[in-house]
Amino acid sequence: MAIRINKYLSEVGYCSRRVADRLIKQGKVTINGAIPEIGTKVKECDQVEVKGQRIEKSTKQKNIYLAFNKPIGIVCTTNRIVEPNNVIDFIKYPKRIFPIGRLDKASEGLIFLTNDGDIVNKILRARNNHEKEYIVSVNRPINRDFIQTMSNGVEILGTITKNCSVEQLGQKKFKIILTQGLNRQIRRMCESLGYRVRSLKRIRIMNIKLDVPTGKYREFTKKELEQLNRLLKNSSKTYD
Question: Could you report how far apart the first and last alpha carbons of the chain are, in Å?
Fold first, then answer.
């Protein structure tokens, strides 16, 4: 049975479908020596290569799901040439994995890594409304107006952020739970209100909480994975 090339690369654990499409557009993927178009289908007898490396769909590999506590200064990318301080080199996991989403270089905390390309867009796509929880410190005292404005939506990047839960934890510290992931969203929200983020730490993604030391990772427990799959059951896999 023929399947789309991006799904093929996702199923063999090479990368997510989104990254696969990017590689195809860049001309780094070939099927039987020819550069395919987005949506080209692959058959069992086809020879697929990425950057000259043969990619084979051998026996179905075991899916890997890791919860990693990213330190400040590490970049969530698989491009090891462009960015030496990348998450893949830092972890040194023995099998090919890639991060689900991003935490910017100046932020720390929970990020997932996997070889399961199909799960990526289910978790990331904003319309699926999956929660991500952060602890944030800013440069000056916050007040009730700050909490209410952050909760009700702030104009950034030409749009209004979705309503979210915000709770004050201290004079300059708050907790925020988002269901969308705009680029540098929390930092931009704070900046629009005249604040500067001093520290930002993600402590939860959906049902999985951060519970490992900085720079360490662990596998999802069986219970966590079962609960995660239930939460993802009705989520869309497609992306914009």
Answer: 26
Task: Please report whether residue 49 resides in a domain.
Answer: yes
At residue 233 the predicted structure's pLDDT band, cuts being 50, 70 and 90, is confident
Identify the weakest region by mean pLDDT among 10-24, 142-156, 183-197. 10-24
Q: Enter the pTM of the model.
A: 0.77
CA-based nearest residue to 220, from 72, 229, 238: 229
Cβ(141)–Cβ(193) below 8 Å: no
Please list the active-site residues: 104
Any residues with CB less than 8 A from the CB of 148 and at least 6 apart, and which?
Answer: none
Parent domain of 38: 3-55
Judgement on whether residues 214 and 101 belong to the same structural domain of the protein: yes
Residue owning tokens 């519970």: 211
